[in-house]
Amino acid sequence: MTKDCLRPDLDRRRWLKRLGAASLLPLVGGVTPFAIGNRHAGQVVVVGGGFGGTTAAKYLKRANPAIEVILVTPEEVFHTGPFSNLHLGGLRSMDALAHGYDELQDRYGVRVIHATVESADTNAHRVRLSTGRELEYDRLILSPGIDMRWDALEGYTEEAAEKAPHAWRAGPQTELLRTQLLAMEDGGTFVMVVPSAPFRCPSAPYERASLVASYLTRYKPKSKILILDAKDGFSKQALFMEGWERLYGDRIEWVGRSAGGRVTRIDAERREVETELGSVQRAEVLNVIPPQKAGGIAERAGVTDASGWVPVKPETFESQRAEDVFVIGDAAAADPMPKSAFCANAQAKVVAAAVVASLASRPAPEAYWTSACYSLVGPEYGISEVGVYRVRDGAIAEVEGAGGLSPQGASEATRALEAEYATGWYNAICQDTWGTRA
User: Fold this and answer.
1) Which residue, of 14, 178, 205, 232, has the greatest Cβ tally within 10 A?
2) Strand, coil or helix: 176
3) Domain total in the chain
């Protein structure tokens, strides 16, 4: 794919529409590696029931039904982070974000255990569950998502999050933030604190600000949004700012680090934040997105490094620190791939192919990945960024000229189409992962 194919507006829209479903297929050596049959078996334990873990479990069984696949996840119903900002904006119910594991068990024969993995002995190839049960594995796939760095921002603890929610895992925190928005008086200020990279879904804070602004425009027109950012730039910044000006005027104010946007202290009780320049800002609703790290089981398994994330072998996403352990999704250090649902789904398919090959004592097929990140600036105003990645010189690299951004200055009709494609993407990836649609 050349850069030229993304220049004409119509060609790019058609390509994005196809990408919404077609790129959910795994890209491994140019073919789909899922028709191997029952020639090889083994036991694979998958930890985490989100976009990465569920997809890996499903595609392992699709590749070889004789492999015993056990998915361990605490949730009986998984609520997706993608589209949870729509709930905050009053545009989608929490039920529409909920997905279960019936297809995984009934159609594919994956054993699903609702528990937490307390520890992993990577030498003995064994994990211990919160139920006290132990599971042995031939291969272990970790897709634990993120944990918050509670010690990274003064004053922001798990208890503080009950007053100043992060809502960075969809569920009770999302509902809490939504309740606070509903209760906020017209004329109040919604303050959002954004951390330095890396963190889950780089564009999500700015989509959240957009959809909260959409809600405020409709129901609390005197209210405003202040984004205090620890960075001096962000994903799709020009496109977001263009959309903010077009849809919301001066309702959203973004302050980058060099202008005093980096927050150093939180007072959740008073809903106040202090920046590194010493200024204090009070909020009627305070949304603090703290610094993050790999989900706790990754650290307990000994596969994280000093960054808090998991270094992986780029060809297979096998841990660099433990043999026969593969790590996908937000927990993996896979720059320049973003920490996103799309990338977790794509990585899961590559890992499934690599695990099937390793159990058969064959080399893993060559892999490459696609990523499409849709963001909604308004209910009918979408923007997107596309990337294609492969291994080059022993590292993951973006394929030059193979991706691109939505064009600036596009028409309302184009933005409405991208919003429609975003919904199509969400439905397609949930169907591919859980066999369910919103």
Assistant:
1) 205
2) helix
3) 2
